Amino acid sequence: MTVNHRMKPAAVNPIKTGPSLGAVLALQGCYRAMPIIHGSKGCSAFSKALLTRHFREPIAVQTSALQEMDVIFDANRNLEEALDLVLSKHRPDIIGIIGTELTDVAGVDYRAMLKTYKRERNVRGSLAFSVTLPDFRGSLESGFSSAVEAMIDEMIQMAGHKGARHVNNRQITLLPASFLTPGDVMELKEIIASFGFEVIAVPDISTSLSGHLLTGFSPLTRGGVRLDSMLQSLQSGLTIAVGGSMERPARRLHNALGTPYKVFQGAMGLKAADELLHFLHQISGEPVPLRYCWQRENLLDCMLDAHFQFAGMSAIAALEPDHLFSVSGWLEELGVEQQALVTSCETPVVAGMEQEVWVGDLDDAEYFGKGADLWISSSHGITAARRIQAAFLPAGFPVWNELGAHMAASVGYRGAMEWTNKAGNLLMRREAERRESSVRNR
Amino acid sequence: MEPIRKDELDAHACGSLSPKTKPCPRPKPGEAAGGCSFDGAQITLLPIMDAAHLVHGPIACAGNSWESRGTLSSGPSLSQYGFTTDLNDTGIIFGGEKKLKESIDYIAGRFAPPAIFVYSTCVTALIGEDMDAVCKEAAGRLGLPVIPVNSPGFVGSKNLGNRLAGEALLQYVIGTGEPESGIPLGVNLLGEYNIAGELWDIEKLMNSAGITLMSRITGDARYKEITWAHRAKVNMVVCSRALLGLAKEMESRYGIPYFEGSFYGAKETTYSLRQMAFLLNDREMERCVDRLTEREESRLLQELRPYRKLLKGKKAVLYTGGVKSWSVISALKELGVQVVGVGTNKSTEDDVRRIAGRVGDDTEYIPDGGASRIIKTVRDRKADLMIAGGRNMYVAMKEQIPFVDINQERHRAYAGYEGLLRLAKELTYALANPIWKLAASPPPWDQEVPHDR
Question: What interface predicted TM-score (ipTM) does this complex get?
Answer without folding.
Answer: 0.94
